[in-house]
Amino acid sequence: MTQAQINTPSPLERKAPSHTLSPLAGEAPIHTPSPLAGDVPIHTPSPLAGEVPIHTPSPLAGEGRDGGSPTQCWDGGVHKQRWHVIRSKPRAESTARAQLERQGFRVYFPQLVKPARVRGRWLDRIEPLFPRYLFLALDAHTQSLAPARSTLGVSNIVRFGNEYATVTHEVIEGLMRRADPQTGLHHLEQPVFRCGGKVRILEGPFERLEGVFERYEGEERALILLDVLGGANRVRVPLDQLLPVPAN
User: 0.70 exceeded by the pTM?
Assistant: First the structure.
């Protein structure tokens, strides 16, 4: 042909129509990132993630159900816990108690009303129920025994080997129940003088003699059986002139 024919491109030679790229094409459509993509979606941390969610501790995690101090056990408002045994210096129980309480410790110091002869008369004296010993309630999660060891009036904290000696709350509660509800003091359950018990006369015409206590005669005297003048004789003696003789 001398004159080029008008060339009509074949379907394969025609210009391709506008192309919409697929995800596999060079240009990606608008991309919504997945957890595996470069952009990470808003993350809600789990307990295994780097950020830990707000934690509500259980009773085993250190706080009680009532939100109190760690490892506390409550029963009707009474704190049940073990009490440590404190040994004071001689005649320093009251000093040790006062100083420990000033540091925020709860201390129980049981005391006893005990008759004693003072200047020729019997008077009630307040003495320790357990001389040189006090009881201290400790919360090991919020308190330390270290300050107690160096407290004025304290000799040491009682141990059994490497372990501190402790007393249960039930024991302490039992001691508290036995005390006078008004004064908190303990009283002797038995009278000073018992029927048939030996006594010594401290003053008067029968001074230094020993006899047998028979009975009380009113509030200030007692009937005593004495072996004098070759026979047994009953005499009335003021109570403040008598002293119990310990049984052998």
Answer: no
